[in-house]
Specification:
Number of domains: 4
Bound molecules: flavin-adenine dinucleotide
Structural class: alpha+beta
Helix content: 25-40%
Shape: globular
CATH class of the largest domain: Alpha Beta
Distance between the termini: 19 Å
Length: about 475
């Protein structure tokens, strides 16, 4: 159904010409960064409000007219969360990118939710402070990162985005503006609505402002690369370093097969040339003495665990190159990717889970490269529609659809048996919604539906995401 004249007139009153209706202008808002077009849906309109007042007015208009709305951040999500539902509109946060308050004394910053992570890191740096979470793509907005409870490589030491959110301003489905939390750390003052909003994927409210708690800057960073003969050996080396009392900033495992594709993409070289997989370990600390001493201990642990080598990248340029290669793994395998898994299992179960993925790939005759966050349990395996060899993709497999479905069912069953969840950081969105109920069970699902009904009785906020409505 097209938008009514009264909706169009109301929206123009609120945002003026910051309302897109032309199909060509709407097309970029029909997808996120999920690899396939399977969920692509164009909105009927895109509105670009500049503050919470305009957001609230748009929400009230949509409520009155019964028009579903989907909030869009940077559109870098991998779960189809910001894809509008049929007959719906998109509320783009891109013009809400101001600093509201930068407070070096309280170690906090309050920004509008449409600020990119790239700009946020610059603003925090200007305060000589540190916001540790780094969920991959710096084009993501802070509001999107909160709405997805994004994680990234540094979660092992610092936790996910959730740990740093002290306050939120949220426009509710009623159009009322709610302030949650503030510039303080503790609160035992009633239900923790702040936490409820984090990870709610735009289904319970529109986040318009975010207050983050910040840390002092670190003084020194070192990066280690340790190749191993097998990926299992690499992953099994991780508990040893934690037992020695060292919690690295990041511990990533990388299979060399997808890394060869990233090398081709960027025309750069990963330092390890032997073995099937590497651990990439990032250490941070007060000063160089601190990080070098951590590196020495980790080197001993890696050698004892059977590492083929331990390479230290102490130069910033080399560290940046390594990080660039790791960050581009998804981009490198994307041309053939038809499913990105984002499971999270207890740390002790990662090696077993990756073993299952290998066995599945072998049985199905498919490529399922894996990489991920080896110390926090978050594994990203990918199902490819063609075979990946020496960084190159072969022809499309004739039965990849049924093979992918079989792989997905087996992989999620394994995750459940190991006590894990089907999404560690990307969210459920549209892409994983069919699998959530089996993973969590009926009681949590019923509680989530009850919360949705209570806070959004008319179901106008991003309906159909996380679960069907
Ligand atoms: C190359 C690449 C690497 C990535 N690496 C990581 C990684 O390491 N870790 C990780 O966690 N993620 C990663 N991601 C996924 C993605 O970047 C994160 O999920 C990010 O947090 C999404 O932010 P966004 O602003 O792009 O949100 P969008 O994609 O625009 O939206 C995501 C969800 O949040 C909702 N939303 C957005 N803004 C708001 C708001 N203001 N209020 C309410 N709801 C809102 C949307 O409706 C949607 O449901 C990666 C993505 C890519 C492409």
């Amino acid at each position: 159904m097209p938008l009514s004249e009264s909706w169009l007139a109301g929206a123009r009153d609120i945002v003026g010409d910051r309302l897109l209706l032309d199909p060509d202008a709407l097309a970029p808002f029909s997808h996120d960064e999920f690899a396939t077009d399977a969920f692509r849906t164009a909105p009927l309109a895109v509105a670009k409000p500049v503050d919470e007042k305009e957001v609230a007015a748009l929400v009230r208009l949509c409520l009155r007219e019964g028009v579903p709305l989907t909030t869009r951040g940077g559109g870098t999500g991998l779960a189809g969360g910001c894809i509008p539902c049929p007959g719906g509109i998109v509320l783009s946060m891109e013009l809400q990118n101001r600093v509201i308050d930068a407070d070096a004394k309280n170690h906090t910053i309050t920004v509008q939710a449409g600020m990119t992570l790239k700009r946020l890191y610059e603003e925090v740096d200007a305060l000589s402070l540190y916001f540790p979470p780094h969920p991959g793509d710096e084009g993501a907005f802070i509001g999107g990162a909160v709405a997805a409870n994004a994680g990234g490589a540094r979660a092992v030491k610092y936790g996910t985005v959730k740990r740093f959110v002290l306050g939120l301003q949220v426009v509710m489905a009623s159009g009322e503006v709610m302030e949650l939390g503030g510039k303080f750390i503790k609160s035992s003052s009633g239900y923790h609505l702040l936490d409820l909003m984090i990870g709610s994927e735009g289904t319970l409210g529109v986040i318009t402002r975010v207050t983050l708690g910040l840390l002092p800057r670190v003084g020194s960073v070192q990066t280690l690369i340790s190749p191993f003969a097998t990926v299992q050996q690499a992953i099994e080396a991780v508990p040893g370093m934690l037992e020695r009392g060292i919690v690295p900033c990041a511990v990533e495992f990388v299979e060399h097969a997808p890394m060869r594709a990233a090398e081709r993409l960027l025309n750069k070289t990963w330092p390890a040339r032997t073995g099937d997989a590497s651990l990439m370990i990032i250490l941070d600390g007060r000063n160089e003495e601190d990080t070098l001493s951590q590196a020495e201990t980790i080197g001993e642990v890696m050698e004892k665990a059977g590492a083929l080598d331990v390479l230290l990248a102490d130069q910033k340029v080399k560290q940046a190159e390594i990080l660039e290669l790791r960050s581009n793994l998804y981009e490198a395998v994307r041309p053939a990717t038809v499913e990105v898994y984002d499971v999270c299992v207890p740390r002790s179960q990662i090696a077993g889970h990756v073993g299952l993925v290998h066995a599945l790939a072998q049985r199905l005759g498919a490529s399922m490269p894996s990489f991920g966050h080896a110390a926090d349990g978050n594994v990203h395996s990918h199902f490819l529609k063609s075979i990946l060899r020496d960084g190159l993709f072969g022809p499309e497999l004739p039965n990849w659809r049924s093979q992918r479905d079989e792989a997905t069912a087996a992989l999620y069953a394994d995750v459940a048996e190991r006590g894990g969840v089907i999404s560690g950081e990307h969210g459920i969105g549209l892409v994983k919604r069919a699998y959530l109920s089996k993973n969590l069970g009926p009681v949590p699902m019923a509680a989530m539906r009850a919360i949705k009904r209570a806070l959004d009785p008319q179901g106008i906020l991003n309906p159909g995401k996380i679960f069907e409505t």
